[in-house]
Every structure is written in structure tokens, then in C-alpha cells.
Amino acid sequence: MAIKTFRGGAHPPERKDRTSGLSVERLLEVKQVVIPVNQHFGAPLQALARVGDKVKRGQKIADAEGRMTVPVHASMAGIVKKIEPRMQSNNLEGLCIVIEAFPPLAEGELAPAPEDLIDFMPPLDAFTCTKEEALARVRAAGIVGMGGAGFPTHVKLAPSKPITCVIANGAECEPFLTIDGRTMIERADDVVEGVAITMKIVSASEGIIAVEDNKVDAIPLLEKAIAASPRTRAGMKIRVQVLKTKYPQGGEKMLITAITGREVPSGGLPMDVGCVVQNIGTLCAMVEAFREGKPLIERGLTVTGSACTKPTNVIVPIGACVADIVEAGLAKVDDEALKGIIFGGPMMGVAVPSYQIPIQKNSSGILLLGEEEARHYAEETCIRCGRCIRACSCRLSPALLSVAIENGDYKEAEAIGLLDCIECGTCSFVCPARRNLVQRFRVGKQVLRSMKQKEAQNAR
After folding, report:
1. What is the pLDDT of residues 184-239, one digit of tens each?
2. Where are the domains positioned within the chain?
3. Which fold has domain 297-369?
4. Distances in Å between the alpha carbon of 96 and those of 6, 139, 320?
5. Is 359 in contact with 36 (CB distance < 8 Å)?
6. CA-CA distances (angstroms) from residue 308 to 22, 132, 336?
7. Angle between helices 188-202 and 179-186 (to 10 degrees)
8. Fold of 131-291
9. What pTM, to 2 d.p., does this model score?
10. Which side of the chain, N or C, has fewer Cβ within a 10 Å radius?
11. Above 70 in pLDDT, residue 1?
12. Torsion, CA 405, CA 408, CA 414, CA 416, rounded to 10
């Protein structure tokens, strides 16, 4: 099998060895969850639950009308204690619903029936229902892209252009993170079924499971699952494609180019080249939504880093935090060695002040960094070496973008391609002068979008 890749990129230390061989465990019980009301890319939601309400596991507790919305569900049965702003993984305060577990039963008190604690939807056959019913189920389950962006999945599965290829993103190119790799090993059947469901919804003729060549142990299991799948036996075309281990191989645009040779145009989307890309976790969540009627109320993630003395791959309820994982004994932290905490991977993740931050639908990992990993370097003057340009997988000129932003010339930055930057951080990683390039680009995008909004308002 030919190993494919894309132009540019970098090879940061992988550091996956501590968790790549660890089976996925499950955090069964927590005393409290703090569930952010808004966990998706799109319009804001309103809380449906009220303080004092008794809620079931899987019950819808926040929603809103509009295409770019997905509901939020209770990840545990309990009592709504508070609805208030709390710090979230984007370092901003946002409205959260705090649910506490029911108190222990009094002596002689009967335990509630299971149906009084769980509120799932009825199962739905994804291959006999209509496309409209399938999209409604995906939305009702609150499913979003679990690879990081949090884009509503039902919107992605209703493109305005024909789709020929569904790509399962199993690259997991971020250092440290191994939850997707373990999921492909332990739930290969569900990954294949998720690809088939996606193909059915978007009427694609081909499904491809993309795996980097540092996860070769998952390939035979996926191929076995493909061969045994009733969907492929019925004629669906699904295969595995091995990719070169390189960052950011898991970016949608890089993945599409590497596999199909097609290039998503500037300002375009994967559907513009006939593709839909789905994260491994998203595919498994879709399978559960159809097979069990289960909303997206839990997710798998990797907890690791040199300050984590017992790392883990673990499935946790949405709204739990690292402290709950530690308290359950699934992970251990050396608090004295802890110097930094990142939600996500080290390249695109966000540094947070505490591991009491709630885990969200798009939290793929939590890194507990020691002194060496969390070291900060002084920024120096650009030496015009061009390494950032050679490494940029989007074929931009990061050095020129940085100059334009530093000069406050955001129109020039836009012309150079600021909005095409995927903020992967490759340019910052390869820069010998330790320039804070990706940080400037993030701020520059915010300023540019704000300027465009003001211009639009003034034009009215």
C-alpha cells in the first residue's frame, strides 16, 4: 500500500509511547458535572433546565432554534444545583449547568428504576430511515466534530454540493494524544459502521479510513472489520489508507490533498472537492446515537504529560474534570512537578490555569506538563531563514503575515492569506527565533473579522 502525505509540515516529537498501549478505561461515577451550555461552533443556546430540576442521564438541558445549533444533554442523573458562568477550556467564562448526583438512598428507600434515571431516544436504523430522519437524529443527539472544532455534524452531513468520498480522520497527528488510535483498535467495527452511516447520509460512493503509519497495529483490525461488515458485503466501498506520520496530517485540507490529490480552494470547504471528513470519535458517537439512541454525553480523551505519573486513555462524562479522573484512581498527578496544563494537543491546544476546567465535547486530551515541556522561550528577531514558509502546509508566508500584523496592516495580511491559516502552529515550531507566529495570526484574525463586521454595519 502506498504511503501518502502532503507538502510541508514538520515532525515534532511524538511522545505517544506512554499511552499508545493503554486500553481505554471508563470513569463510571462522578459527584458533580459542570456542563457548558455552548460547546459548538455556531449560534448560542439557552438553558432549558432550571435550578432544582431533577434530570435524567441523556435528558436535553439546553437548546435553541437555528441550523447552526446542537442541543446539550445531561451526562449524569442528578439535581441541577446552579446555572452560572464558569471558566471553560477557551479561558473565557461561559454559562454552565451544574448537576450534582442524587444523595445516597436512606435506609429502606427503594432504588429508582433504570428508566427513571436514563432518557435516551429510541434506536433508529440509519440504513432504512430517510436522510431527513437521519440528519434529525444526528442533531437531536447533540453531535459535533470531536476533533477540536466542534462544528455541528448534522450541518456537515447536509452539504450543498455532491459528495463522492467520506474520509475517517484517524491521523491523530498531535503529539501525546492516543485516544483515536486506541479507539480504532478497540472499536474497529464501530469506526467502519460510522463510515458506512456517513456514506449513506451523504450518498458517497467511497469511504476511506486514514491512518498514520505510527498506528500500524490498528490497520489489520480495521481491515478485518471492513471485511466482516454487512455494509461492505452489500456493496459499500470502504478501505484503509496509510499516511506518513507528519504534522499536521490530520488537518482536513491536508488529509484531502494527501488522499485524493484534490486541493480545497481558498475560503472553501471539503464539500467543494466532493469530500466529507469525520473524526473517529464523531463516527462512534453517531453509531451510538442510531443503535442505542444515546446522545453525546461522554467522550474519550488522553490524560498524559511528564507531570502525570499515571497517564490514561479514558472515557468521561461531559462536564467532568481531571480531578474526577484522579480521584477515581484512573490517573495520577505530581502537583509539585506540574508547570502547565493544556486542553488538547501541544500544537493547537489551549493552556488553562487549572485542571478543574470541565471537559467538553471537543476535548481530545489534557496534558499535564513538567518544567521541560512547559518551558517558555524569549522571542528573538526574525532572521529571514524561510523555514516557516517551507513548513507551512497551507502554502502561506508566515514571516510576511507576521510583519503585516505587527504593522497593523490587516488588509495586507488578508491579501497574503491570513484567513487561510489553520493555526496549526507548525511555523512557530520550526522557527529558530522562537517567534510567536501562530499567536499573532489568531489575534490578527479576530481583529480582521471585527473590522469586517464594523464595515458591514456602517454600510447598512
Report:
1. 999 999 999 999 999 999 999 999 999 999 999 999 999 999 999 999 999 999 99
2. 26-102+112-116, 131-291, 297-369, 387-459
3. Ubiquitin-like (UB roll) (3.10.20)
4. 40, 20, 12
5. no
6. 14, 45, 11
7. 90
8. Rossmann fold (3.40.50)
9. 0.94
10. C
11. no
12. -50
